[in-house]
Amino acid sequence: MKNRFSPDGARAPVSVRVRTAALPLAALSAAIAVALPGLALAQQQSLPETVVTATRVAQPLSDLTSDVSIVDRETIERSGATGVADVLARLPGIEISRNGGIGNTTSVFIRGAESRFTAVYIDGVRIDSQSTGGAGWEGIPLGQIDRIEVLRGPAAAVYGSDAIGGVIQLFTKRGEGPATPFVGVAIGSNKLRKAEAGLSGTAGVNGAFDYSLGVSHEESDGFNIQPLEKRNPVKTAQYAADGWTSPDRDGYRSTAANARLGFQINPAHRLEGTFLYNDIEAQYDASKSGARPPAVFPDDISTNTLRTAGVSWIAKWTDNYTTRLQVTDSKTTYQTDPSFYRTETALRGYLFQNELHFGAHRFTAALERREDDLENAATASAKLLARDRSQDAVSLGYGFVQGPHTVQLQARRDDDSEFGAKTTGSAAYGYAITPQWRATASVGTAFRVPTLYQRFSEYGVASLQPEESRNVELGLNWTSGASNAGVVVYRNKVRNLITYDGSARGCLSSFGCYANTARAEYEGLTLTAGHRIGDVTLRASADFQDPRDLGTDKLLARRARRHGMLGADWKVAGWTLGAEVQTSGMRYDDAANLRRLGGYTVLNLVASTKLTPSLTLIGRLDNAGDKDYSFARIYATAGRSAYLGLKWSPQ
Question: pTM surpassing 0.70?
Fold first, then answer.
């Protein structure tokens, strides 16, 4: 694998190329500070009335004691984005890192927490990697996603292992009403081509059968993710001396499909089935690839394949008692050529969820089993790795909503086939001080067991212990008419943090091993605000955080201490026009804080209109100022990029 991969089998945490520093975040902070008394989080004005991510059962937004954001399909389409991570990066409390363009290794940090500390579900199906740890964001097809729910903060007492930083649930579309087809096409910079089609609706007596089907294909010639620094001779000489000079374009090709079927047997019983598939092939530049003839050295190619499937039976036995029985299965495969590496994670889940209501009281209880299988193919430097494990869990929850008071209590006990029992819990309280002001407070514990690769690969240590966290947070929200604002303060401490230690011994590798070497603290403050004035909607968020390794007192790699967003939408003459500014402070590419990544500020513009009642036009210009910035040293991001799409769906 040479320098292309880190010991965990993913692309190594390679560095970032940044030419220009960000505009000061102070400008955004000042704007929020001025607007805060009269602004509101505009995003929440159009949110659906209920969410399921906070406690795994449907809850009204007004009852939540958690920090949650929701993204609907309209927002996804208007974003013009081609990756899920790019949509998430526009939400409060979230940063991303990517080694180049779409299809390349992508990380998502919630409140600065490691990417593997986020539990990710698609239609209730858990996805994860027992090699790198965490979801393979580059393999999730955005075109099939209809809605996203993001929970910031630990939720292991509900979801078990992994949910130290938060939970992200992605949902495909559910069929409603008469049969409705759609067709969409789009073109963009770097020869982006995209086509999608689908059909959704209901059939049968009283619409008992609902369905939603979709397919999509997109491809792009991409851009050179390891370009020469023509505008910076010093960096050009440095990178050339290191061999980081691969002049080719690095494109991608993705094909995806999904199906969501439901059958309402009678008013009390419903069956659901979901399926999603995506195959994305992306070009990348291996470490020190050099300026090389393609006939002699073919392109480096990575292939991500994701498949999820689930079957559920939802039964409403009485007006107060509901159950859900669910069986899910997911498989993620990552492979590279011609430098061969292949890893596959299969994850099967079984869930029996119970929900009972008595007036202002809500009780939940669940039995859950998770089975993980990892297979890493043999390579020139490593033997075949095939291991499995399981976790059995029982969880209990209690919710109370009456008058100004909201209480949420959760407890869960997981029994791991190798680590034994682990108990986690959380407690949250919300109080409506006035009809406009509401305060929340919560505490919780969480954990993540080491991946099978971290324990049993040539770099693994079987005696690794689970990573554990304790979190406390306070929130204050204000709502008045079309305006609201919020602030959340949090501190999440993690012990037994697993890192790769090049000096450690005790594994088969002579280059170092995984070890429980660190303690981390994720501490910060998130501000959100928005306001609607006539046909203009304003929104803003700012994060001030300190994700730090307590052992070394260094900032954790690739996370900024300040980042934020400021946006506006304006409806005029049948058009919806939008502008947003995304900004981030400086970061470090390495744990030693020696490789500095400059900050950045980018401007994105969007416009959409209905050409006919059934035909919608969307145009977008990202990075309008053509800022030169990167998320990882050496790897570039796209410059100024245009997107133009048409979607037809009869009304």
Answer: yes
